[in-house]
Amino acid sequence: MLIRLRVLGSLEKYLGGARHEITLDEGATLRDLLDLVDCRWGKELPSRFWDEGARRFQGPVLIMSLGADIYDEDTALSEGQEIMFLVPLSAG
Fold first, then answer.
1. Distance between CA atoms of residues 24 and 33, nearest Å
2. Are 85 and 57 in contact (CB under 8 A)?
3. Which residues contact residue 18 at a Cβ distance below 8 angstroms, ignoring those fewer than 6 apart?
4. Among positive and negative, which fits the CA dihedral 20, 25, 31, 36?
């Protein structure tokens, strides 16, 4: 199935662009997507964003879809779903 990945903020330079189309097996979960991120980009991601041991984002990185944060790695993904990885900007 096809997942549309949108990357916002400073993560864009590490993932090689703002938009990606990802193909995952039918029935894939967020964990499957994170495993793919680890294989493709894990080595390029700084430790402030990526936990290499757990193969997941950490720190200020949010994962969102359908207007809500996704935290549960068992969350099922669906054909054509857009997933956003973003680092919020802060101003003071």
1. 8
2. yes
3. 6, 7, 8, 12
4. negative
Q: Are 37 and 18 in contact (CB under 8 A)?
A: no
Mean pLDDT, consecutive 10-residue stretches, the chain (92 aa), reads 95 95 97 97 95 94 94 96 89 52
pTM of the prediction? Answer: 0.92
CA–CA distance from 37 to each of 45, 81, 90 (Å)?
10, 16, 25
**DSSP class per residue in 8-67:** EGGGGGTTTSSEEEEE--TT-BHHHHHHHHHHHHTTTS-TTTEETTTTEE-TT-EEEETT
